[in-house]
Automatic annotation (TrEMBL):
<feature type="domain" description="Alpha-galactosidase N-terminal">
    <location>
        <begin position="15"/>
        <end position="146"/>
    </location>
</feature>
<dbReference type="InterPro" id="IPR017853">
    <property type="entry name" value="GH"/>
</dbReference>
<dbReference type="InterPro" id="IPR013785">
    <property type="entry name" value="Aldolase_TIM"/>
</dbReference>
<protein>
    <submittedName>
        <fullName>Glycoside hydrolase</fullName>
    </submittedName>
</protein>
<keyword id="KW-0378">Hydrolase</keyword>
<dbReference type="InterPro" id="IPR055092">
    <property type="entry name" value="GalA_N"/>
</dbReference>
<dbReference type="GO" id="GO:0016052">
    <property type="term" value="P:carbohydrate catabolic process"/>
</dbReference>
<dbReference type="InterPro" id="IPR011013">
    <property type="entry name" value="Gal_mutarotase_sf_dom"/>
</dbReference>
<dbReference type="GO" id="GO:0030246">
    <property type="term" value="F:carbohydrate binding"/>
</dbReference>
<dbReference type="Pfam" id="PF02065">
    <property type="entry name" value="Melibiase"/>
</dbReference>
<dbReference type="Pfam" id="PF22676">
    <property type="entry name" value="GalA_N"/>
</dbReference>
<dbReference type="GO" id="GO:0004557">
    <property type="term" value="F:alpha-galactosidase activity"/>
</dbReference>
<dbReference type="InterPro" id="IPR002252">
    <property type="entry name" value="Glyco_hydro_36"/>
</dbReference>
<keyword id="KW-0326">Glycosidase</keyword>
<dbReference type="InterPro" id="IPR050985">
    <property type="entry name" value="Alpha-glycosidase_related"/>
</dbReference>
């Protein structure tokens, strides 16, 4: 620590004592790309984390090798890493790393990207600034070293992040419905109305009803296709059932077939030759990244969300957000990918005001303080496969693993979205045990609860009744043990008492739930006032 001078830059690092560890801070000046801050011997096993929502947060040992299929490298592109040129040839962990006796992690990501590079014997801590020039002394992303085991250390780490960033987010933890994991792209207005009607009949207690991918003309052309009427009509219909209208879009992604790509290529992130950079491939198309520093692109983005809000939408699931943080040449000079990404999120946040914003496919640490909810797992799926590649592909098994390993972020940085519950008993490969474990884990960790089923199917009513019951208990305090061993013990306390979930083996569904005896049985009464306000009352049941 101290003063360091290298080709093109200067840096001063300082170490401060904090409870249970140290904080490393400092300042930089000059042009920086990739700077190694310090290194230490590699432990036998570590909990490593990927940079965005879908990526794994998992325990790996020294014999672990990244096994990423070569035919998917180009397709995944920047979704796998903000640094694909490093990621596919090295073993790295983004933002934080933990071992049996410590947690090390960045507290901010506003300009640079902090990551850990693992060799056979060493872990080196880096901050990547992507060639940014600092004309004045500027604070680096601070890092903490916490000398606690991860079960305790991660909880403290999240609190330090929240304090460092002055985090605020919605106080409301929503329950609702989404179309995606039942219908995928085969969704239309008629099916929406059918499930709205069925939800009323079943009295499922939704607060949010969200339409997912399938409504738009193209990725980048955010207007309704022939399967839907106007967005105002869609939102009004949802609202007429008493639900908050929700909508999905990927605001930083531009398809090669979209009118934006054809007419506004100057709005896209480019390479040094001025050619738009492919961010990733999906929908059988090349997808490019919106340059959020271009004034016209900023105005387009702002008007898009102002218009959606004006049409009645009040819950926004914004997806594939990593596209806003890809490397490349932008309209504004000397702006890092992280700075550009955060600028885009701020534009959206200001446009929608106090509406609920759910991030997905998102760089985690740069999103802190700018979203209300965050997907913290790979996409779930109507199947459970512990033997498939752990690379962020849809899979209920890996999704639930991440729900546990990233539990500490919940209700500190945002509301964790464990991805949707699928409670149907048909058109699925999930068993009763799969459904129960996913639902109970999500409830005991006090996560967002969004269901995705064709409501005309037979639904596991017992599990949804459990959801409704637990939501009457309000917020929960929870503790997770066993993050490094993979034998998890979740203790979750609310006004009903303290419940316990013990998972001996997640892959083979060896688990046990111990419910406390409720001390108070409550009934929820919802009163909707004529002025539009909603009041929830909880009354003790008569015995």
């Amino acid at each position: 620590m101290g003063y360091r001078k290298s080709d093109g830059y200067e840096m001063i690092l300082e170490v401060y004592k904090v409870p249970a560890g140290y904080k490393i801070a400092g300042e930089i000046k000059g042009m920086l790309d990739d700077v190694e801050l310090f290194s230490f011997p590699r432990p036998d096993r570590v909990l490593a984390n990927n940079w965005q929502s879908w990526g794994p947060a998992r325990v790996i040992t020294k014999d672990f090798k990244l096994n990423f299929p070569k035919d998917l490298i180009e397709k995944f592109g920047f979704s796998a890493s903000i640094m694909p040129e490093v990621y596919f040839d090295n073993l790295i962990s983004d933002y934080f790393l933990a071992a049996d006796t410590f947690v090390i992690g960045a507290l901010k990501s506003e300009i640079g990207h902090v990551y850990f590079k693992l060799s056979d014997d060493t872990v080196s801590v880096h901050v990547r600034y992507f060639g940014k020039m600092f004309d004045e002394w500027t604070s680096i992303e601070p890092i903490v070293v916490i000398n606690l085991n991860p079960d305790d250390g991660f909880t403290y780490y999240a609190e330090l992040i929240a304090k460092e960033n002055n985090v605020t987010f919605s106080s409301h933890n929503p329950v609702g419905w989404s179309s995606w994991y039942q219908y995928y792209l085969d969704f239309n207005y008629e099916r929406m109305i059918s499930d709205l009607e069925k939800s009323r009949e079943l009295d499922l207690g939704y607060e949010v009803f969200q339409i997912d991918d399938a409504w738009e003309v193209d990725i980048g052309d955010w207007v309704p296709n022939e399967k839907f009427p106007s967005l105002k009509e869609v939102a009004d219909k949802i609202a007429s059932y008493g639900y908050k209208p929700g909508i999905w879009l990927a605001p930083f992604s531009i398809s090669e077939t979209s009118s934006v790509f054809k007419n506004h290529r100057d709005w896209l992130v480019k390479n040094e030759s001025g050619v738009p950079v492919v961010a990733y491939e999906n929908w059988n198309k090349k997808i490019y990244a919106l340059d959020i520093t271009h004034p016209e692109a900023v105005e387009w983005l702002k008007n898009l969300f102002v218009g959606l809000k004006a049409n009645g939408f009040d819950y926004f699931k914004i997806d594939f957000l990593f596209a806003g943080a890809i490397q490349g040449k932008r309209y504004a000079h000397n702006v890092s990918p992280i700075e550009a990404y955060r600028k885009g999120l701020k534009v959206i946040r200001e446009a929608v005001g106090d509406s609920f914003v759910l991030g997905c496919g998102a760089p985690l640490l740069p999103s802190v303080g700018l979203v209300d909810g965050m997907r913290i797992s790979a996409d779930t799926a109507p199947f459970w496969d512990p033997n498939s590649p752990d690379i962020g592909y849809p899979n209920a098994y890996y999704a639930l693993r991440n729900v546990i390993t990233r539990n500490f972020m919940n209700n500190v940085l945002w509301w964790n979205d464990p991805d949707c519950l699928m409670l149907r008993k048909e058109d699925t490969q999930l068993s009763d045990a799969h459904r129960e474990l996913y639902a109970v884990t999500s409830l005991l960790l006090d996560n967002m609860i969004i269901q995705s089923d064709n409501l005309s199917y037979e639904i596991d009513e017992n599990l949804w009744n459990l959801v409704k019951k637990y939501k009457t208990y309000g917020r929960r305090k929870f503790k997770v043990r066993g993050l490094m061993s993979g034998r998890y013990k979740i203790t979750s306390c609310g006004i009903n008492g303290c419940d316990e979930l013990v998972i001996e083996d997640l892959a083979t569904l060896q688990y046990k739930v111990n419910y406390d005896t409720p001390r108070i049985e409550l009934s929820k009464v919802v009163e909707k006032r004529t002025d539009g306000r909603t009041f929830n009352y909880y009354m003790e049941n008569n015995k």
